[in-house]
Design brief:
- It is a single chain.
- This protein folds into 3 domains: 288 residues, 2-enoyl-CoA Hydratase, Chain A, domain 1 (Alpha-Beta Complex), CATH 3.90.226.10; 180 residues, 3-Layer(aba) Sandwich (Rossmann fold), CATH 3.40.50; 214 residues, N-(1-d-carboxylethyl)-l-norvaline Dehydrogenase, domain 2 (Orthogonal Bundle), CATH 1.10.1040.
- Helix content is 51%, strand content 11%.
- It contains 30 helices and 19 strands.
- The strands form 4 sheets. It has an 8-stranded mixed β-sheet, sandwiched between helices.
- Helix 26 crosses helix 27.
- The two termini are 45 Å apart.
């Protein structure tokens, strides 16, 4: 029999070699067609007396990235609505569909013939579950290979037996850590845990797997034998009583119950380990099916998997423009931000010219790059030879003539218009006509900065986030005259440095800075109202934000917030700012000199030894005092999230944002908007436009016009629309 996604051949010793190699794909993924063929292959092995066992490997550089999650979206589209309305047949169809892959793996596990997974590269999610269902696992050695079950990161659990097999193979504490954190394990760690049988050179992988079969691999898993004992002992034991209550408490502490997948994983392991494997798998399938129907999973899959993939594949790149070959990039400004941009560019193998006002300043920027790569080497994440290779890519200088031959120049100097004009003119005097000039500004409109350029069609904004080496988002800003070739090259560059781009149109603060400003500002206003600082910070985390607004303000600088507030007042008038917020920031910055982390004192204190802590003086900073017990926690959460979502809707109405995917991805990756929500627009859609508008109006009555819903929201609410319905990317493309 021939297959489309696999090759199947049997050697003279009766060992079948099954090679997974999907045509027209760079990586194997699990699809309906793959499941159909895998079922047939298992039966072919089980039913042929001449076959003693089978090796499953990959014809790609990696084993597999796991399931194609768009398949789950399709399943939900067919059965989800009816199942949610109580249709038992639809609910059963959804459960059967969700359980199918697990049933296939269970058939492989119990078919009577031994299977060995020969893992020649990364195996994640459902692919690693396939390997766990096999009777042994041989992995090719290599730093790039990672094994894991990351489903929790998109609101799901490993639904093809992962929760049951991992918890029966290793101690339950390690199993829960792996599952609840979605850990990616390196080969050595997987071997130490006991999830891998052998690690061998890549060129010996299949041979070693076959040798293992020839030596004898038990085709019956330990848990299918009468004398099987769990690695950590019974659930109802002293060890179990120590583990599971503590694990539940830690889950609540870390997630504030915003992520149902974590609770479901705990329940799967706790319940499943008290049952035989087949019943444990049924428990897992039911929890998996339930998660599929939750808005959390739906939104996280859409934003953090499907939309993220599309944007990483440059969904917004103009058609008809040939790919750019970027070999040399200039960075103007060797401070913390400029040096970070230089580092990620050099890591991508691109030559960098790092320029500052004098050689000493430029050398400091290169030294920062040295510090970053040396830190990775010290942690075993990079090899010593990579340091010299990276630093050789960076030419630190004060000479603008070195920019000759650059395909792209990124200006990363201070937020000062005159300084930016000066460096733009100096750079353009050297650059070729085809080169693109970009400004890494976070607030200044690109169109106005482009006035300093003699080629505004090749002038664009490329806004990085700090620290550059860790933050995955890059916001590309189109000025009024920015051309498509500049956009295409900017997107090609972002892809080369392996970051995720969003494309927005010009405005004051663009998208991310505008929205994160509302989050920080709402924290200021709560403090000015007399809400205790600790409550503000804790409630923000309870709402799903990674850090509180006061802590975030310390990171971006409190004095910067003061400057932005004063600039807004100057440009738009006193009515454009809140007097209470202005008074608070004036006290903090002008009178007390508390600028944030950068000078060791802001809303928090930063002692030389020990952890940061809220500044005790905050309690006396404002006259108003509210009784914490009388404060509505739910309303505080709503204020923090609604302000951000409402500002996103305003950006969409004004045309700053034009793509719902970029709004959601930008909010999560750019400023940490509650990932469980799927992003700011998914947050609105999930609540429902009518309910969201009503909530905004209620808050506006109590707290003022900053919560007043904009015209677009009111219109959509009246029509019963959603953002993903009205502005779906497919509709946009069709238009």
């Amino acid at each position: 029999m021939t297959y489309t996604n696999f090759t199947f051949e049997t050697d003279a010793d009766g060992i079948a070699l099954v090679t997974w190699d999907m045509p027209d794909r760079s990586m194997n993924v699990i699809t309906m067609a793959v499941m159909d063929e895998l079922e047939k292959i298992i039966e072919a092995v089980a039913g042929d007396a001449a076959i003693k066992g089978a090796v499953i490997t990959s014809g790609k550089d990696a084993f597999s990235g796991g399931a194609d999650l768009s398949m789950l979206e399709g399943m939900l589209a067919v059965h989800g609505p009816a199942a949610a309305s109580g249709d038992e047949a639809a609910a059963k169809a959804l459960l059967d569909g969700a359980a199918r892959l697990g049933n296939i793996y269970r058939r492989l596990e119990t078919c009577g013939k031994p299977f060995v997974a020969a893992i020649n590269g990364t195996a994640m999610g459902g692919a690693f579950e396939l390997a766990l269902a096999c009777h042994a696992r041989v992995v090719a050695e290599g730093e790039k290979t990672k094994l894991g079950l990351p489903e929790v990161k998109v609101g799901l659990l490993p639904g093809a037996g992962g929760t049951q097999r991992v918890a029966r193979m290793i101690d339950p504490q390690s199993a829960l850590q792996m599952l609840l954190q979605g850990q990616e394990l390196k080969v050595a760690k997987a071997k130490a845990l006991g999830l891998v049988n052998a690690v061998v050179p890549a060129d010996r992988l299949v041979a070693e797997a076959k040798a293992l079969l020839a030596a004898g691999v038990d085709p019956v898993k330990p848990w299918d034998k009468d004398k099987f004992r769990l690695p950590g002992g019974p659930v109802y034991s002293a060890a179990g009583f120590q583990l599971f209550p503590a694990a539940n408490a830690i889950y609540r502490r870390e997630t504030h119950d915003n992520y149902p997948a974590g609770k479901a994983i705990l329940s799967c392991v706790y319940e499943g380990l008290q049952l035989p494997m087949d019943q444990g798998l049924r428990v897992e399938a039911r929890y998996f099916t339930h998660l599929l129907t939750t808005p959390v999973a739906r939104n996280m899959i859409r934003s953090l998997f499907l939309s993220l993939q599309e944007l990483n594949k440059l969904a917004r790149r103009p058609a008809g423009i040939a790919p750019s070959s970027i070999t040399k990039v200039g960075i103007l400004g060797a401070g913390f931000m400029g040096a970070g941009i230089a580092y990620v560019t050099a890591v991508a193998g691109i030559e960098v010219v790092l320029i500052d006002r004098d050689q000493e300043s430029a050398d400091k920027g290169k030294a920062h790059c040295d510090k970053l790569i040396s830190g990775r080497i010290a942690k075993g994440r990079a090899k010593p030879e990579q340091r010299d290779a990276l630093l050789s890519k960076i030419d630190a200088t004060a000479d603008y003539a070195a920019l000759e031959g650059c395909d792209l120049v990124i200006e990363a100097v201070f937020e000062d218009r005159e300084l930016k004009r000066t460096v733009t003119e100096k750079a353009e005097a050297v650059l070729a006509e085809t080169a693109v000039f970009a400004s890494n500004t976070s607030t200044l409109p690109i169109t106005s900065l482009a006035e300093a350029s003699r080629r505004p069609d090749r002038f664009i904004g490329i806004h990085f986030f700090s620290p550059v080496e860790k933050m995955m988002l890059v916001e590309i800003i189109l000025g009024k005259n920015t051309g498509e070739e500049a956009l295409a090259l900017a997107l090609d560059y972002v892809r080369a440095i392996r970051k995720t781009p969003i494309v927005v149109n010009d405005s004051r603060g663009f998208y991310t800075s505008r929205v994160v400003g509302t989050y920080i500002g709402e924290g200021h206003l709560m403090l000015a109202e007399g809400v205790p600082a600790a409550m503000i910070e804790n409630v923000a985390r309870m709402a799903g934000m990674p850090v509180g607004p006061l802590a975030l303000n310390d990171e971006v600088a409190v004095d910067l917030s003061w400057k932005i507030l004063q600039a807004t007042k100057k440009d738009l008038g006193a009515e454009a700012i809140d007097a209470g917020e202005e008074a608070l920031l004036e006290e903090m910055v002008v009178k007390l000199g508390r600028f944030g982390r950068k000078n060791g004192k802001g809303f928090y204190d930063y002692p030389d030894k020990g952890k940061k802590h809220l500044w005790p003086g905050l309690a006396d900073l404002v006259a108003a005092k509210q009784d914490p017990d009388a404060i509505d926690i739910g309303e505080l959460k709503a204020r923090l999230l609604v302000r951000q979502a409402l500002e996103t809707a305003r950006c969409f109405e004004e045309g700053v944002l034009t793509d719902v995917r970029e709004a959601d991805i930008g909010s999560i990756l750019g400023f940490g908007f509650a990932p469980y929500s799927g992003g700011t627009l998914s947050y609105i859609d999930t609540m429902g436009l009518e309910a969201f508008v009503a909530l905004c109006e209620k808050l506006a009555v109590k707290y003022g016009p900053r919560f007043q819903p904009n015209k677009l929201l009111v219109e959509m609410a009246g029509k019963g629309e959603t953002f993903y319905g009205r502005f779906a990317p497919e509709k946009k493309k069709a238009a």
